[in-house]
Amino acid sequence: MILLLFSTIFIIPALAGLGKIMENIFGTLFPDVSGKIVSGIMGISILWTLISFFFPLNIYIEVSTISLGLIYFFKEKIYLEFYKFTRKDFFLGVIASLIILFAGSFYPYILDHFGYYVPTIKWITEYGLIKGISNLDLILGQMSIWHIFQAGLSNFSDPFLRINSVLLIIYTLYIIERKSWIQLCALPIFLLFSQSPSPDLPVLIFSLIILNEILVGNKKAALLFAFSMFVFAIKPTMIWLPIVIFLYNIFILRANSKNLLFGGLILGLYFFKNIWTFGFPIFPVALVDLGFSWKPNPEVLKISSQYAIMKTYDMQYSYEEIQKFSTIDYIKNWFFLKGIKSIINILFILSLISFSLFAWIRKRKLITLICISLLIKSILVLMFSAQYRFFIDVFFVIFFILFYEYFDKKKSIIVFSTLSILFISLLSFPSLIQQAIPSFKLGNFMTGFKQKQLYQPSVYQYSKFDHLKVGNLPFNVSKNYPYNFDTPLPAISQSFIYDDINAGIFPQLIDKNDINKGFIWKRMTSAEKREAETVINTIENVDK
Question: What is the pTM of this model?
């Protein structure tokens, strides 16, 4: 916790200084120090994404960038803006920050932290963006811009990968500066995302910030659209946000098409990044096939698609069973899954219906545009993979709109205090949630409070792995563990090894002497099949 505090004190001024540079070039999205920090996050994320095509985001790039930000922080006297806080607001910010730092010091428990977040960050810091990386491990094809941002700060500024905790403190600054007190109600829930660099947290926070900006009448059309595209580039399930900002620009601000240019460039960068790492413009959808040689094998994509469909039903039905569903079965079985997922799904549909009725009754143009955007996003999610994690943002947006005028500062602080106690208790004593909601599977991976986290954020270490080889690809695989968060690169998850071998293929280096040239898949020769059998035997013998 103490080390996380030092990271925060170091990172936030640097981001504010970098944001000042962004504002000098592109203008101000919204005023105050939080506006500079948010601009700094977007600017440096885009810059580091461009750099990572050519270089790894190593300590040299981090030191150069952070130094530039700190120089501008002091040169432009940005630190003076922190003196604007009233005594009460300063006290509220300190209390909220201490709660965030404490929550962020717990062990990570989100499974994607081990199978997706950390491996992605390791690749970016050691190699940068690698062409066709999805052939090695399909999930790495995402390479979220948020993980590029985290990678750039992971060499010394934030080695514990707690950038989400830092973001929550920045979010607190925004809430206090902009007097958007209702957002305090969501802050305790967001504590559950503070231990890992999950891209879910930044898109939730940034979407609520943008939502608040358009509700208060922000007219920075170009920057609003650009920032909404930045959010989409972090996680494309947030497609409703650029849609609503696009409609806001057309029907309310009457902005011209030039205001879409900056956002369009960010969208183009997102497409290019995906094509480079995955072979298609939008991960993990194999649409718009441009015929690139490093795109994943169709059989592997098919398996991934089937898995996404099973995840829609919380893995409670096999793919074969789902294929036999009638239209009524598709709907009924989704509503009546075993456990908490059923409640979430029902609440999701009821929330959409309620919000649609609210928009129809209020007849306010902006609320109608938000409703239309949410409905478009919801239809797309229901069509592709209706997992609750893909539509959780809808709950926050609807709550924000419905109660925007109800929650003043006093009511928001009461809710914030009550929920903070609740969620800190759940993190400290996970048996509470394990007993109360046994179907909440993530609760089983929470470890509770450890005294050492008061000094240093808790992190896992697991450096047991086997070094194997198939064809021209030497690789590592974790021993008796499905994920490769602590395995030297190049590493492949066990599940993808099985998928590849079952498809009769295996990833190979484009240039056997240079991993930076990327990966493709190839049909295995007889000799490579024997090597693959050795790999399977090694994995299975270790697992026994």
Answer: 0.95
